[in-house]
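User: Fold this, then the next.

Assistant: Folding the first:
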Amino acid sequence: MSNKFKKYSIVAAIGVLLWGLVICGMRSSFQRYPLSVSFAYFCENPFYNKLGVNPVFYIIKTATVAKNEMPAILNEVSEQEALSYAEKELNFCIADTLSPLTRSVVPTGEMKSKKHVVLILMEGMSRVNLDRVYEGQYVTPFLRNLRDSSIYYSNCFSASVHTNHGIIGSTCGYEPFFGTTMMTTEPPIFTGLPYYLQQEGYHTSCFITSNPQFDNMNSFWCSNHIQRIYSIYDYPQSKAVNNFGVQDDYLFEYGLQAMNELTQTGIPQYALFLTVSHHGPYIVPEQYKNRGADDEERILSFADDALRNFMTQALQTEWGKNTLFILVADHGFTEHSKYEMSLEHHVIPLYFCGVGLSPRRINKVASQIDIYPTVLSMLGIPFDNNSLGIDLTQENRRYAFFVSHEHLGCSDGQHFFCHSIQTGRELLYDISNGENVLDSLPDKAADMRSYARNMTLLNLTGLSKGWAQPITISTKCE
């Protein structure tokens, strides 16, 4: 070996080492997941959380952040016009211009004592999945049968198409700016379900299958009234099956034991469970290999069984008999849709279960953003609703509005209006046959267009102006 070759070999080795150090420096960690701003969040105080973040980060972040441009359909109406529309639609009077959506809710108190609250967000569980059949058997028999022992909303829609949207939609009553994430490095602060339950003396926690840094969940929850996050850091490493962590069955097994211990304190508990098994790549256990036509159906069968086992065991415990369970999808599931905007991605099941509730199926329109005000009302907790969600026990909505990356949608379960924010193309479908009836029902299309436009504008304005934080109480119009 010549001296020249040795010299180049040493230079090459040093070069590889230096590049490796640069990559490690960019990741800031030797873990599977790189360090992110979310790692700095450890409490509910935003000032303390930000002390550990490099100030250079904020300089660069400020320079690179681009403002979202409002789609043309939303620029057609002013904020004041939209507020006037909402006053009539939601039957309230604006009492404070700093928080114009805020209105006082007198709860129904359907639950007679202070209940624990368990909210289960089912990954990608479109309502379409409840009708899937394999070899003469339903793929999700538990979820189908649960409709008969629950308050079941058969006409519910998700806020959008991602998990972080489903979390904030269900617990805080707001929808995203189309496809953009809502859990940013500067997490927005909301009132909502965790906030008001914590005010009532509840201990609040979340159970997830993977790393809490995913989607900036850690920073969001630490800033939004969640006291304890159970994650991949709490589970045996042997239980992790892929980058999404543990399977649903172990998540519920662990969560059941944790709830057994938490409820022994005598403090009412709020727990959010976030499932993930029905998210590709699918990890199908061997015993489910013959439970569907493909891996997507097989994992649905597995997820259904995991839910059944958890609910069956939980309802046998003392705490389970004193719990309001809410089961809902974070969003639906993309299929080969006959619509320009995938309706299957937004139609979701919604269940309210608990000892003492009178089971019934309700066909009126419901939205994911209605969960937070409805749960508080059922628990008998007075609150100020500063979202566009409604208390389903006392109010009705004519339509649900929702968004995806490229579309604005609106539906009453019979008709489906969609607007492309890129091309301006509009369609009105008859859901019973999938036909475009825009030309034959112009008044219906105009009504749904107006609803979607006004409500979406107010939703996005509320996000940007901080209306989600409580300021004042308003009253109903006389």
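Now the next one, as you asked:
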Amino acid sequence: MYQLLIILFIVLVVLGIRHISRQPEDVRPSLRLRYGLYALLGLAVLLVFSSRLHWVAGAIAATLPIIQRFFPLLLRALPFFKGKKSAAEATPKSPSNSFSAMNLEQALQIFGFDDLPSEEKVTQRHRELMQKNHPDRGGSDFLAAQINQAKEVLIEAAKKA
């Protein structure tokens, strides 16, 4: 009986290795981890049946695939339990699609210029405005995007002039 279980275990390990070798490279690490945990579980069951492992240790080993399956979900839910937003909720959507193309007059108005400045003046003024309005310093994502777009418009116009 035990010899049959050992043969079955070895056959399953060989089939698992063959299955992993046929998969694409990017999928292999997760399959190795999953099949490794299943192999540990199978080995624990085999040792329990042969009375070489206490049933409590076998039960602990049996929970490994369950932990492996639900641990990423627990990590994703952890910010919820702490009362904080997850990284996906904390980052606002990009405002780049919420406004249309900017013209030269709007860009000059945003930067506070009356006429077309040089590229150096545009870069210097952009740096000043971003220091005041950057989202990491309490500014608005929308304003930062407007400033960046205005800089691009002004630099393009300065290159053409």
